[in-house]
Amino acid sequence: MDVAIEPVTESGSGGTLRLPSARVVPLSAPPASYTAAVERYLTGVGIAKSSARIYRISLTTWGWMLAGEPAPTGPARRGAKPPVFPIAAIDDPALPEVLAELAAARADEMDADTVNRELSIARKAIGWWQRQGWIDGDPTIGIERRPAPPDHTKALAENQIAALWRLDVALREKTCWKMLYESAARADEVLCLNVEDLYLQDKRGRITAKGGATEWIHWQSGTAQLLPRLIARRTRGPLFLTDRKAPAGTPTLDVCPETGRARLSYRRAEEIFEENTRLLAHPLASHEDIEDLDGWTLHRLRHSALTHDAEDGTSTPMLLARSRHASVRSLERYARPGVDAVARHVAERDPAARRRT
User: What is the largest CA-CA distance in the chain?
Assistant: First the structure.
């Protein structure tokens, strides 16, 4: 980064020293728009492909608010075109106050984990843009992270997993959900798989993990039985595809060269899973109330798989290898026994049950 330093001057008879002020000289010409700045950031810091989707979604959401507009939510979000504005608009002195109100309103509608993740991603990007000299300030200063008490019900019970497999859904969804649970992989990693990354006989696949490393994920017979039907005769291209042809402008890497269909996005995969699991998440609700209910998230399949492994006595080194976490501390939230394990523990120690035996 190039920094221009103004001369040091003195004022008054006391020789009061005025500190030099630094002015950041842009390393390159600022991009034409906020959207272009987002792409420059993702490329410039080397965000892995598996993570870039999440970063792009979060920064697009913040793009609405940085333009002074509320970010669309729910069905309105799909297909909504973000506003176009110059990156320099982030330095508008009136923006911080407006942004704080918009962020607070969004935080009231979303879960704390999502809000905090999006805020963290926005601040990382803003900091990088500042270092490039494209903007001076950070309008998110003053916006606080929301408290996120731990949710100890994220691991699905065994009967919930069994009910999930009984749902009448498309082959694509059956395969994706089975793979996520059996491999305990992150959803963005699985959705970035290509057909040529699969080693079907070995029941494993090569993925680009968080941080950009190339690693293996492994699955079981349930996924292995479904994959050949999903792939059909394809030999390359994205594994999980949309139902329609890819729109113009879709990156070549995200288009199947044999069918012309696009790679299934994380957002769409999440929507489908959430919609199909609403009644499973609320078994006492009626079909008339389904539009007002929230279903499960794809991450709960990974969380459940690791929790069930821990309950079955899987060693810590194996859990670390399976989850691909770097530390035991990161693994702790998954290794907490779930509701079924606690129920069995209590039942096995019930004095009345012992007498009946």
Answer: 97
